[in-house]
Amino acid sequence: MVTLSTEQLDVRLGRHLAVRGVNLTMAPGQLIGVIGPNGAGKSTLVRALLGLVKPAAGRALLGGAPVERLSRQAVARSIAYLPQGQTLHWPLAVERLVALGRLPHLGPLSRLSADDEAAIEDAMVRADVNGFKGRIATELSGGERARVLLARALAVGAPALIADEPLAALDPGHQIDVMALLRAQAQGGALVVTVLHDLAMAARYCDRLLLMDGGALVADGAPMDVLTPERLASVYGVAARIDVSDGLPLIVPTTRI
After folding, report:
1. Partners of residue 212 on adjacent β-strands
2. Which residues touch 256 (CB under 8 Å, ≥6 apart)?
3. Per-residue pLDDT tens over the stretch 89-106
4. 168 phi, psi to nearest 5 deg
5. How many CA atoms lie within 13 A of 122 on its CB side?
6. How far is CA 213 from CA 40, 57, 192, 202, 230, in A?
7. Tell me, which fold does domain 4-221 have in CATH?
8. In the chain, where are the structural domains located?
């Protein structure tokens, strides 16, 4: 089990204060969505949680320890990371690309063990890419590559997973599959954090939403407590249709305000 937290976290990107004064604690067993308009600081926040950007003030903590003081291998073993918009430059076979997820567990010149191979196979099945074996990753479509990269993150077998915009480039069916997979990860005891733009998916699948605006955390709670008409108007500048008639929330932005 692992926890992630921040204490009065500020992050500067050049002169821009991209994250400001964020306090939060995230524990295992939840699917947590990070939402907000473009430029709200969502990706910067998750990069700070991973120790990929340094705080200008405050702290990001992994298991109670400042993440910037931990080794990169220790962080990689604890948190699997799926960044947004990755570009593949090397013509690796799909199964070799997924196998890169096991690197945090390997020493210099180590070979994959039977446990490593089992983790790779399981990740490929769960991400629905087992049928891509033998294909070259750079020859896949954008959506297919996105699923392979998700499989690589799952292959790490870390107790926490951060996925930054995992639905980008996916068709509707695979978007549903990915959200169901992330929820299953959380229900299995993992801490899962995902950056999302699709408010309907965020509302229907996430246990908790963190709404960011202008670098600040402006709301934190259950989806329907966060996604109120007033907040959708003030943060996104939209009116939306909100329907809970089937027991699950459906949020459809309709007009600009």
Report:
1. 217
2. 237, 238, 239
3. 889 999 999 999 999 999
4. -60, 135
5. 15
6. 5, 19, 21, 16, 14
7. Rossmann fold (3.40.50)
8. 4-221
